[in-house]
UniProtKB/TrEMBL annotation:
The protein's name: Acetate kinase
Pathway noted in the entry: Metabolic intermediate biosynthesis; acetyl-CoA biosynthesis; acetyl-CoA from acetate: step 1/2
Enzyme Commission code(s) on record: 2.7.2.1
Source lineage: Bacteria, Bacillati, Bacillota, Bacilli, Bacillales
Organism: Lihuaxuella thermophila
Site (Transition state stabilizer): 180, 241
Catalyzed reactions: acetate + ATP = acetyl phosphate + ADP
Family classification: Belongs to the acetokinase family.
Residues reported to bind substrate: 91
Residues reported in the UniProt entry to bind ATP: 14, 208-212, 283-285, 331-335
Keywords: ATP-binding, Cytoplasm, Kinase, Magnesium, Metal-binding, Nucleotide-binding, Transferase
Pfam families: Acetate_kinase
Amino acid sequence: MKILVINCGSSSIKYQLFDMEDESVLASGLVEKIGSDSAIIKHQVPDKDEKVVTGEILDHRAGLNRVLALLMSKEDGVIQSAEEVKAVGHRVVHGGEYFSGSVIITSEVRQAIRKTIDLAPLHNPPNLLGIDAAQNQLPHAVHVAVFDTAFHQTMPEYAYMYPLPRVLYYKHKIRRYGFHGTSHKYVSLRAADFLQRPLEELKIVSCHIGNGASITAIQNGKSVDTSMGMTPLEGLMMGTRCGDIDPAIVPYVIAKEELTLAEVKSMMNKHSGLLGVSGLSGDMREVTEAMFNGDTAAKLAIDMYVYRLKKMIGAYIAAMNGIDVLVFTAGVGENASLIRQRVCEGLTFFGIELDKEKNAERSKEERRISREDSKVEVLVIPTNEELMIARETKALVESF
């Protein structure tokens, strides 16, 4: 079975075509600058040079049409006909309280996704555009929505509710939803498989640390708490997002700096975090290099970043009354050995003992980086959200 996974942004389409017989990637790519006459398609087939195509692509339907043409082309194609694509897995950022799992897309599902637009105004509209385009271009295929928020729908009420007047929840569904759910689910399954232990018996703290970052407490295979909230701004200090701050700072800064609410939202989302504190970059590699070169602001940014990570991990260990596995994933989690080392050095009280040599190894593989005598398994597991989407799509198609 061949499954196309697509992730649509406001002016982009990311895609991967899987052969689910062996879960291999037949082709992948990115369409950028949709809506212009200078759009770019980067198309990659394994063992071939990347193909770059530029030209006019005015909407997502035209973009997907160009993608399908590449997938079927004589020079760079991997399928003979669009009919070979049996299903399409769509990443949808926000499912609100409507969805606790992936679903086959129907008119009722589309309507529910529209109702959550206020919760994800930057993401759900382009996700719907992608669904429209794909259903138009691939009407024979089964289309499946896989939600970033669905995995966290198992959180108990006391974990997802905010201490605000409850009427705000009833009227506007203001509560914590969490994100990166597909990644957290994937790495928790891989952790259990790697350790050859039942997922239902494990207490896992999963750290998805990239430019955006979140931590999830996973107990018996279910998300019981997660650091992102109603929006992806809550929680950890990130590349450009501030994470948790005193909410009274917002009106205070508006008054003192004579800023609009939109300007403060932009400041907290795009100009804070590592970038805001270091004054240099939101890229962990650049900030780390600056720290080693003696930049004191960069050092402070790293110190704050690590400290907040340790605090959140400790909080989730308390929430589950223990921990069996600590997982690092995503760009920073998989590649920044210094961050992993400094975080784990502050968690030895919980029985976490890092093997510094294993931690320092450069590898793209799943691996254990804890010492033999560590009471807690510490793992690095590369995430694969696209494969998780493909797997969930396949499971629904086979049960359809």
